[in-house]
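Milestone 3.1: sequence recovery, worked example.
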């Protein structure tokens, strides 16, 4: 099943099914000798023999440890920690130099997009460096956007309350969709993926059209009016559904025994969805607090 998340698209193979990381030449020693297992008759009872010790010519490299759920949790936590730390820094930069903060946010948006493209098309989805670079860029973006919407709020709601509401909303949606996935209330099927992809394409086309129209005074999807509220709700719904796709891809990679480094790719995919969801919830809250 092919993922609609651009990061997860290349984490799977064979039309979307998770790649099996077992012995590519078959298993002559029984069904149990899969990824990371060796022929028991090649092992010396006295340890590694000549030609098996590290540094000897022809030495056999040890199999990489398989990815676990704990790997996904830890790598995602590190990635989000970097995003939050950088976002806080750029937010406070905005309080003393708003122009600089907005410039850094723009750099973050462009850099984050380039990083995702490198991860997707450059086959770097298992790279810790790529994932953490994305986290730094997105931290700049999140901090700048948070400051921008907080400064635009004209009601009695403080910036801290507005941002706190957006964070709680994001965490709530994440937890809710994780529960939905675990209970199997919504199944991730090929039809589900096609519908989700269609929704993403539609939203992207509308965003691009609205962006071009904004240069001519047409900004109906982001002006805070009723249509803007509906559009933000649609984006939030798509981001929420995207979590199901993310969870499903991560689950398949764990079951397939993918290398542990793939957890960085999973973390990147989840971070993309979380950042999008947070910005849309923050935007929606700003509409109501500007009334």
């Amino acid at each position: 099943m092919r993922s609609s998340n651009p990061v997860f698209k290349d984490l799977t193979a064979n039309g979307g099914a998770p790649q099996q990381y077992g012995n590519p030449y078959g298993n002559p020693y029984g069904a149990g000798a899969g990824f990371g297992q060796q022929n028991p008759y090649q092992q010396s009872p006295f340890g590694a023999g000549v030609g098996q010790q590290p540094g000897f010519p022809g030495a056999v490299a040890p199999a990489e440890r398989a990815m676990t759920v704990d790997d996904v949790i830890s790598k995602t936590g590190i990635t989000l920690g970097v995003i939050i730390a950088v976002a806080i820094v750029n937010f406070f930069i905005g309080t003393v130099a708003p122009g600089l903060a907005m410039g850094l946010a723009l750099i973050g948006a462009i850099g984050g997009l380039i990083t995702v493209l490198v991860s997707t098309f450059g086959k770097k989805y298992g790279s810790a460096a790529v994932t953490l670079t994305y986290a730094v860029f997105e931290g700049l973006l999140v901090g700048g956007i948070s400051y921008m919407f907080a400064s635009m709020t004209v009601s009695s709601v403080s910036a801290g309350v507005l941002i706190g509401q957006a964070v709680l909303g994001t965490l709530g949606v994440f937890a809710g969709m994780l529960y939905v996935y675990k209970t199997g209330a919504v199944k991730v099927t090929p039809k589900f993926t096609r519908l989700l992809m269609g929704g993403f394409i539609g939203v992207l086309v509308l965003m691009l059209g609205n962006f071009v129209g904004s240069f001519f005074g047409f900004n109906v999807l982001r002006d805070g009016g009723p249509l803007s509220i509906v559009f933000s709700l649609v984006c939030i719904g798509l981001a929420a559904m995207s979590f199901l796709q993310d969870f499903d891809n991560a689950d398949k990679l764990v079951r397939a025994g993918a290398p542990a480094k793939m957890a960085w790719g999973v973390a990147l995919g989840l971070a993309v969805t979380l950042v999008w969801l947070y910005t849309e919830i923050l935007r929606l809250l700003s509409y109501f607090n500007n009334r």
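Confidence is low (pLDDT under 50) at residues 8-61. The chain has seven helices and no strands.
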